[in-house]
Amino acid sequence: MAKANSIRQGSGLIDPDYRQDVFPEFAGVTTSVLDCMGRVCVGSAYVSDSSLETHYAIFRLTTDGQLDRRFGGDGKTTGTFQDGNQSIGYHIIQRPDDGKFMVLGLTFTGLSPRKPALARFNPDGTLDTTFANQGHFVIEQPSLESTPIFQADHGTAMQLSDAGAATPQQSWQIKPIGDSFIVFGNYYGHDLVVMMFDWEANFVAAFNGCGYKYLERQGEGTVYGLALHADSQSIWVGACMQTPDFRFRDAFVVRLTRQGEYDQAFGAAGIADFPGLHTLKNILVLPDDQRIIGCGAREDGAGLLVALRQTDGSLDECFERTGVKHEGHNIRWDHVLAVSPGTEGSKIIAAGELRVGVGNLPGVVGCFNSDGSLDAFATQTFALRRITMLAGCTLDTQGRMLVHGQTQIPERFNGYVVRLLTQQ
Question: Could you tell me the superkingdom of the organism this chain comes from (predicted)?
Answer without folding.
Answer: Bacteria
